[in-house]
């Protein structure tokens, strides 16, 4: 498989398989431990892993990146979102630091026949003992086809043997199958009509979501991108805790939530769901409380403190009040809000 996929990666292959052999036992035991746990327990389990287990997994990640760089020498094809993380991971694997670096985030841009795909991958520290977060987008693929592509790719990755590396197989699958998701006459990709209900959609929905924390720049960017992609309005308040509100056509909110909650979170849940029945061709803008989807901060008159991840709760309550939503403050925090 590796020789057929990466003919230019030969210098890395021997080391790659040596690392797999050395790390196999600890990856298998760790993988079983991970797969028997809920997503909310993953962070705690990761903290309990031995140094040797973490080093084995991170070395495999680095070896896979080396082969990907051989396969995609053009920096526009393989993008490491924060190159400093790659350096930090190498330092950790080689014992120059005991400080565990952030997760590695990759983007791989592929030309597949008539179309172009962009695959984003977030590699947790415990990958490949658990699967990475992978999502594929295309500017020339309609939303239904894009959703189907991601579901089929996820199904394929779940069939791989526990502990296997996933990025290479995902690339191969996209190169072989990706073109089939583009029609001969591709549907123009546009935002859903924000003012007119699609005939088959009967509800407007608003989700109020609570997360233990939202720190990751990658997750925050993906939340913004997905919300705009699904024509949702609302906000994301990063920090601890993290708060998200999304509103729009019910089907769009369901697809958005299905994707977001599949990411690795310490804890994330929908605290409240609000729905309104829609009549045929009814203008949905009257149900929206937010004009755009945005990340909240000082530009919204919310004072940020303690390194940027703690905010003034009085300002948050005032923001909610200004958007006819002050009542949800108690849903999140168990007390009535008060503006400062």
From TrEMBL:
<dbReference type="InterPro" id="IPR059181">
    <property type="entry name" value="RWDD2A-B_C"/>
</dbReference>
<protein>
    <recommendedName>
        <fullName>RWD domain-containing protein</fullName>
    </recommendedName>
</protein>
<dbReference type="Pfam" id="PF06544">
    <property type="entry name" value="Prp3_C"/>
</dbReference>
<feature type="domain" description="RWD">
    <location>
        <begin position="63"/>
        <end position="181"/>
    </location>
</feature>
<dbReference type="InterPro" id="IPR010541">
    <property type="entry name" value="Prp3_C"/>
</dbReference>
<dbReference type="InterPro" id="IPR016135">
    <property type="entry name" value="UBQ-conjugating_enzyme/RWD"/>
</dbReference>
<dbReference type="Pfam" id="PF05773">
    <property type="entry name" value="RWD"/>
</dbReference>
<dbReference type="InterPro" id="IPR006575">
    <property type="entry name" value="RWD_dom"/>
</dbReference>
<dbReference type="InterPro" id="IPR017359">
    <property type="entry name" value="Phi-like"/>
</dbReference>
């Amino acid at each position: 498989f590796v020789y057929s996929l990466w003919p230019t990666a030969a210098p890395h292959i021997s080391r790659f398989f040596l690392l797999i052999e050395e790390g196999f036992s600890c990856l298998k035991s760790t993988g079983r431990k991970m797969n028997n746990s809920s997503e909310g327990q993953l962070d705690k389990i990761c903290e309990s892993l031995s140094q040797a287990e973490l080093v084995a997994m991170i070395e495999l990640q680095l070896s896979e990146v080396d082969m990907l760089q051989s396969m995609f020498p053009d920096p526009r094809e393989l993008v490491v979102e924060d190159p400093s993380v790659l350096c930090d991971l190498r330092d950790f694997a080689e014992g120059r630091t005991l400080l565990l670096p952030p997760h590695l985030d990759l983007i791989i841009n592929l030309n597949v026949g008539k179309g172009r795909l962009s695959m984003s991958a977030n590699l947790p520290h415990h990958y490949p003992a658990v699967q990475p977060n992978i999502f594929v987008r295309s500017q020339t693929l309609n939303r239904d086809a894009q959703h189907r592509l991601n579901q089929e790719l996820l199904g394929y990755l779940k069939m791989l043997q526990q502990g296997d590396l996933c990025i290479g197989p995902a690339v191969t699958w996209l190169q072989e199958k990706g073109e089939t998701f583009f029609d001969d006459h591709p549907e123009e990709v546009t935002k859903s009509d924000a003012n007119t209900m699609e005939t088959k959609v009967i509800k407007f929905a608003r989700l109020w979501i609570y997360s233990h924390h939202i720190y990751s720049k990658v997750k925050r960017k993906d939340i913004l991108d997905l919300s705009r992609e699904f024509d949702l309005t609302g906000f994301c308040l990063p920090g601890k805790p993290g708060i998200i509100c999304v509103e729009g056509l019910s089907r769009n909110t369901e697809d958005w939530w299905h994707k977001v909650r599949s990411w690795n979170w310490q804890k994330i849940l929908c605290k409240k769901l609000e729905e309104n029945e829609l009549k045929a061709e009814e203008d949905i803008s009257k149900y929206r409380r937010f004009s755009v989807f945005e990340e909240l901060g000082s530009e919204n008159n919310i004072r940020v403190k303690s390194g940027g991840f703690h905010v003034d709760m009085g300002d948050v309550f005032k923001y909610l009040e200004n958007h006819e939503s002050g009542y949800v403050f108690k849903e999140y925090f168990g007390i009535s809000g008060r503006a400062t």
